[in-house]
Write a structure and sequence with these properties.
506 residues, alpha+beta, Sulfite Oxidase, Chain A, domain 2, Immunoglobulin-like, 5-stranded mixed β-sheet, 5-stranded antiparallel β-sheet, 19 strands, 21% strand, binds ligand MTE, binds molybdenum atom
Length: 506
């Protein structure tokens, strides 16, 4: 058959298979979807330099980019499957079987995989192969028998067959997508109602931000809170099924279920979380009132052995994180197992039903979402997910600051204040200075401090000359340390350097 027809046959068969697999995955578990499972495996296998490049180039769109890239690669292979089968369908079928096996391995190697999950890639394989055989036959029949002769009927049949396959695939994919994002878990999360702590956080004072002048609001709304994780699909973990096992170098193992955890004293605290991947001036930091149980109390009950220096935590989907034991029992820092965020149950994308939070540490060494396992161990014995991929072992949050207004290359009026945020969790912000056009540093006004584990806003008022300007900012924390101009990349343990913004006064 002709190349375009062969390519179409290959492409449609692949789409039909993947869409049906996605639908079956929707019924079993999102990670059973062959397409999503291959994507998730790709994330885990991506070499560091590529991951780094993807985050830098595409920011939080890296997952969309990954899925589109995968679609392009799979599409290309599908076209090849068609092109290598101009007469016999065998070469194409062999290629489809190879892909089916790869998808099955990807599905079964997901940490949360159940044995039923393999049904999704199997169905995908059968549908793909069946569609290929069917369309291939129609394709052959529709070809001119001898030069110049066109066979009318079968060509129309090929067209009808193709349209039917495409429509069926579309419906299956859409159905799968609906099921993958099904609202069952969201409903049971909502049913928990407001999370009422035993000890509520003090109200946020009115002077805690300069939002009216362009700083972020002190509390970040849950939907606006930055999100960073390696997940293509969100773990669907119900409170009834949640359990946390604390074991390893302990005097006695402790296992907690949801009601055991939530019947303990619940404290609420405002904390600013930060991601180590945040570039100078970047968006990966947010603040919320977090409600949870003090980890120090739970770890005291378990009794940690003196030689233990790492608490190695695992989420339900197998992501791991290593946290220094000392930071978890520090009475000042108040590390928590978090169940509530701004009065609501933890949103699913932020770790529902339970996550870890350690003020002062970047999220990758402290913020385990969907947490189910806690092993008391040593840094020598176990290496966590990001440590295996070149990031640091111990990562306290660095003293940093960011200008939020004026925005980059914004045109503003002469009396526009320069505002932004500074953060130095556990130490607190002492001073923020701003300078214009490399002139002298000028102390900025600071917002009311809420606690040392949260960000603090700054504002510099003035009348700026018309024309182009560059503003720079640097913060000093309460230990007396002032940010230096030395630029460091986020990897391995956090970016450094002054944030600067160019703007024009009209
Ligand atoms: N299970 C799991 N927990 C995780 C991650 C992850 O990929 N998987 N990412 C961590 C990182 S790098 C950060 S910065 C914080 C971000 O938390 P947030 O998405 O709630 O802001 O979660 C941490 N916890
Ligand atoms: Mo992070």
């Amino acid at each position: 058959m002709s190349a375009p027809v062969a390519a179409l046959v290959g492409l449609l068969s692949m789409v039909a298979g993947l869409a049906t697999g996605h639908l079956v995955g929707g019924f079993i578990s999102p990670t059973a979807s062959p397409f999503l499972a291959v994507g998730a495996s790709a994330i885990d296998l991506t070499p560091l330099w590529l991951k780094d490049f993807a985050v830098r180039a595409f920011g939080s769109y890296d997952k969309v980019v990954l899925l589109s890239g995968m679609a392009a690669v799979v599409g290309l292979i599908a076209v090849v499957a068609g092109l290598i089968s101009p007469r016999s369908r065998t070469p194409g079928l062999v290629l489809i079987v190879v892909l089916g096996v790869i998808a099955s391995v990807a599905v079964l190697s997901r940490p949360t995989a159940g044995s039923l999950d393999v049904l999704a890639p199997l169905v995908a394989l059968i549908v793909s192969a069946g569609t290929f055989a069917f369309l291939h036959r129609l394709g052959l029949l529709s070809q001119p028998q001898t030069a110049g002769e066109v066979v009318g009927m079968p060509r129309r049949t090929l067209l009808a067959g193709s349209v039917a396959v495409a429509a069926g695939a579309g419906i299956a994919a859409a159905g799968g997508q609906l099921l993958v994002g099904r609202s069952g878990l969201e409903a049971s999360r909502k049913a928990l109602g407001r999370i009422g702590p035993t000890v509520t956080a003090p109200p946020i004072p009115p002077g805690a931000d300069f939002a009216a002048d362009g700083s972020p609001t002190f509390i970040t709304r849950n939907p606006d809170f930055y999100r960073v994780d390696v997940n293509l699909t969100l773990p669907q973990l119900r409170t009834e099924d949640w359990k946390l096992r604390i074991h390893g170098m302990v005097d006695r193992e402790v296992t907690l279920n949801w009601s055991e955890l939530t019947s303990r004293p619940l404290i609420e605290r405002a904390v600013t979380m930060t991601c180590v991947s945040n570039e100078v001036g970047g968006p990966y930091l947010s603040t919320a009132n977090f409600t949870g149980v003090l980890l120090a109390d739970i770890l005291k009950e378990a009794g940690m052995a003196p030689g233990a220096d790492q608490v190695y935590t695992t989420s339900v989907d197998g992501w791991t994180c290593g946290t220094p034991t000392a930071t978890l029992v520090d009475p000042v820092r108040q590390a928590m197992l978090v169940i509530g965020m701004n009065g609501e149950p933890l949103p699913i994308e932020h770790g529902f039903p339970v996550r870890m939070l350690v003020p002062g540490l970047y999220g990758f060494v402290s913020g385990t979402k969907w947490i189910t396992d806690m092993e008391v161990t040593t840094f020598d014995a176990k290496r966590a997910y990001w440590l295996q991929r070149g990031w640091g072992q111990r990562a306290p949050i660095k003293t940093m600051s960011r200008i939020d207004s004026p925005g980059s290359f914004e045109r503003v009026s002469p009396n526009t204040p320069i505002t932004g945020v500074a953060w130095a969790q556990t130490r607190g912000i002492e001073k923020v200075e701003v300078r214009l056009d490399h002139g002298p540093w000028r102390p900025a006004e600071l917002s009311t401090e809420v606690n040392v584990d949260t960000w603090r806003m700054f504002r510099l008022r003035g009348r700026w000359e018309p024309g182009a300007h560059i503003a720079e900012v640097r913060a000093t924390d309460k230990t007396g340390y002032t940010q230096t101009a030395d630029r460091a990349a986020p990897i391995p343990d956090g970016a450094t350097g002054w944030h600067s913004v160019q703007f024009t006064v009209q």
